[in-house]
Design a protein that fits this description.
Order of helices and strands: HEHHHEHEHEHEHEHEEHHHHEHEEEH
Strand order of the largest sheet: 2-8-7-6-5-3-4
Number of helices: 15
Strand content: 5-15%
Helix content: 40-55%
Distance between the termini: 38 Å
Mean pLDDT: 96
Radius of gyration: 21 Å
Low-confidence stretches: none
Largest sheet: 7 strands, mixed
Shape: globular
């Protein structure tokens, strides 16, 4: 993976183990992104007014092939948080209805649901899923205990943000469909980190980022809605698509109301095919395999330092390129500051329930030397902070 390090813009003086937060774009993809920006600026009226719909369709087609979804069931959005806001504000639920989620969800998305539920009287319920995780069947059983007759929507992350657990969303979506429950899946961390087949996932609605593990520029994400439920979606921003004419319509109400929301730079969206091509050119299945192997070593070694057990079976696929390792109770603010100030390590520290973790992301630009730097720092700092 050393050769890949040269293809990224990451500061070489920083041990960067935090790809999961905002991603990182390879130089060849970033170059394509800047080319799109130059083309936009050279003739913005032509580009935005007459060419853009066709260009976005081509980009959605390539994204659709990558995710196994039809181009007209996908629309580009700026980020996953935007996606959850579109969905939460679109659902027509009654007071007393329930949206069931887990206690492993991303805070910003939780806040979106909570805000809407506060206005409508809908109940937003966090069902506990315990750590360490054991099997898919145990997770499903724990989660399904929260389902009641009032449950109208299930919202879950494919890969959770605070705990980096790959949840069995395919099986949960299948069970929900049989029970007439709408499913909304947050795939912010999934595409690029694991193979994602939206037909196999079987969810009604999925939103996810392209700018994280798919390596596209910042500001590229997608919203997928199964054709049968697209009619429930309403835009956050009202624009021309609300009253699209035969001459201006893309042929899809779903695309019309969400694709054009006023003047913006679509270069990140149009660069997604270049990111997909970069992964194909660099044999990304092999890269992911090697990243997972390196992450397993990191988790094992951190557990040895902290004298704690791993939070998922290390031989399992509950984690991929991002994983957590437990830490002894300490001052996370001080630890994070010292990791960066003294060792130049960029890595998130997580407080979840009563537990504390370090969340390590291993991407193609990372090496064993990066893991060694983190282990050395934790071995030196944790005893000091404990004292």
């Amino acid at each position: 993976m050393n050769k890949l390090k040269e293809l990224f813009l990451i500061d070489p003086d920083v041990t960067f183990l935090n790809h999961g937060s905002f991603g990182a774009t390879p130089k060849p993809v970033f170059s394509v992104y800047r080319d799109w920006q130059s083309r936009l600026e050279s003739q913005p009226v032509l580009f935005l007014g007459r060419e853009l719909d066709g260009l976005l369709f081509e980009a959605r087609e390539k994204l659709g092939r990558y995710l196994n979804a039809a181009a007209d069931d996908l629309v580009f959005i700026p980020n996953a948080t935007f996606g959850v806001n579109v969905v939460a504000s679109s659902l027509k639920l009654d007071q007393g209805d329930q949206i069931l989620t887990s206690d492993h969800e991303y805070g910003a998305c939780d806040y979106s649901w909570e805000s809407v539920c506060k206005k409508t009287g809908v109940n937003y319920i966090h069902q506990a899923i315990s750590l360490p995780v054991q099997t898919d069947e145990v997770i499903i059983e724990e989660f399904w205990r929260g389902v009641v007759p009032q449950t109208k929507v299930i919202y879950l992350s494919m890969i959770t943000s605070p705990t980096a657990v790959r949840l069995p969303v395919e099986k949960i979506c299948e069970r929900a469909r049989k029970n007439g429950i709408l499913t909304v899946i947050d795939a912010a961390h999934a595409p690029g980190q694991i193979p994602v087949d939206l037909q196999r996932v079987g969810a009604d609605i999925v939103f996810g980022n392209c700018h994280k593990w798919m390596l596209s520029p910042k500001g590229a994400a997608f919203l997928y809605v199964r054709k049968e439920v697209q009619e429930i979606i309403e835009p956050l921003v009202m624009s021309w698509g609300i009253h699209a004419t035969p001459e201006t319509s893309t042929g899809s109400r779903f695309i019309d109301i969400l694709q054009w929301t006023g003047t913006k730079d679509p270069s990140a969206f149009l660069s997604v095919p270049a990111a997909i091509q970069f992964m194909q050119d660099n044999h990304w299945d092999k890269v992911r395999f090697e990243c997972h192997r390196l992450l397993r070593i990191a988790i094992e070694q951190i557990c040895n330092v902290s004298n704690k057990k791993p939070l998922y079976p290390l031989e399992s696929d509950f984690y991929a390129q991002m994983g957590i390792a437990p830490l002894p109770v300490t001052n996370l603010t001080v630890l994070k500051s010292r990791l960066y100030d003294e060792y130049k390590i960029e890595v998130p520290l997580i407080q979840w329930r009563e537990s504390q973790f370090v969340r390590i992301s291993v991407q193609g630009y990372n090496t064993m030397e990066d893991v060694d730097v983190l282990i050395k720092a934790l071995r030196e700092l944790l005893p000091q902070l404990k004292n």
